From TrEMBL:
Coiled-coil segments on the chain, per record: none
Entries under SUPFAM superfamilies matching the protein: ClpP/crotonase
Gene3D superfamilies reported in the protein's UniProt record: 2-enoyl-CoA Hydratase, Chain A, domain 1
GO function terms (MF aspect): catalytic activity
Signal peptide: none
Source species of the chain: Paenibacillus riograndensis
Protein name as annotated: Crotonase
Domain of life: Bacteria
Length: 278
């Protein structure tokens, strides 16, 4: 007879403690709020953070006590990208680390789609890196001064991390290509008009609204919640299965043959990154 405790899900008390330096978690009546942070401020993205994403989605998804998830950031920025992570050219990375980078990049977003079988709400509290995580949620609301953009192409890198895939899926191929090449900002109101997000509101109203939506969702039976999420998230599962591996491989291949390196190009755009949280 197997020991159910040995193979069962990690308890909330364990994984909330394990990830507390990156994701502060609050759970009430089945609603889990996951707030990204670094030292109480906006999350500072780096490679350990990227690896942690894949693990945290798995742990959250395996806990049957989680019924609805709210994902949000800290302060006025969603999360902050750090050009310094590219001090070492990707072509000079050890081959094993390049392979790990491929898998971690995939799990960061694929595990969010495949491991979470519950309704999700993205409460995007401001501009920042990897905003596609917020738009992958079933419902996405954002602060009124948020801007969405992708600077990969401007930094000399093919956009394969999932942002353009999100734009293609939501906006269509033509608009996605335009924003991929130009790197132009999509304001909160434009994002609403384009269908990228669900609602726009002042930042101070964002989390109360997210909790209100979560409480509304909780009124339906458990099976209804889970199976509705399965229906609305299925297009994302199809998109990732068909395209994400290809897009990411294109990005990493170009990085692997890039003799100049990303860092110098990113530093030319540093002011914009800092202003917009990239």
């Amino acid at each position: 007879m197997f020991n159910r405790k040995m193979i069962g899900p990690t308890r909330f008390e364990e994984y909330s403690e394990k990830y507390k330096d990156l994701f502060l978690m609050t759970r009430r009546d089945g609603i889990l709020e996951v707030r990204m942070h670094t030292n109480g401020g906006p999350l500072q993205f780096d490679w350990p953070v990227q690896a942690a994403y894949g693990h945290v989605w798995s742990d959250i998804g395996r806990d049957p006590e989680n019924e609805v998830m709210i994902l949000t950031g800290t302060g006025e920025l969603w999360q902050i990208g750090n050009p310094e992570v590219w001090n070492t050219k990707f072509m000079d990375w050890p081959n094993r680390r390049k392979l790990e980078m491929y898998h971690e990049s995939l799990r960061m977003i694929e595990n969010m789609v495949h491991c979470l079988d519950i309704p999700t709400i993205g409460a995007v509290n401001g501009t920042g890196a990897h905003w596609q995580l917020g738009t992958l949620c079933d419902i996405t609301i954002c602060a009124e001064d948020t801007a969405f953009f992708d600077a990969h192409y401007l930094g000399g890198v093919p956009p394969g991390d999932g942002i353009v895939l999100a734009l293609q899926k939501i906006l269509g191929s033509k608009k996605a290509a335009y924003y991929a090449y130009t790197g132009l900002n999509i304001t909160a109101q434009e994002a609403l008009d384009l269908g990228l997000i669900s609602e726009v509101m002042p930042r101070e109203q964002l989390l109360p609204r997210a909790w209100g939506l979560a409480e509304m969702i909780m009124q339906a039976p458990r099976s209804t919640r889970h199976l509705t999420h399965s229906i609305v998230s299925h297009p994302w599962k199809q998109a990732f299965a068909e395209n994400q591996g290809l897009q990411l491989t294109h990005q990493l291949y170009d990085m692997a043959i890039d003799e100049e390196g990303i860092h110098e190009r990113l530093m030319k755009l540093k002011e914009r990154f800092q202003r917009n949280g990239r």
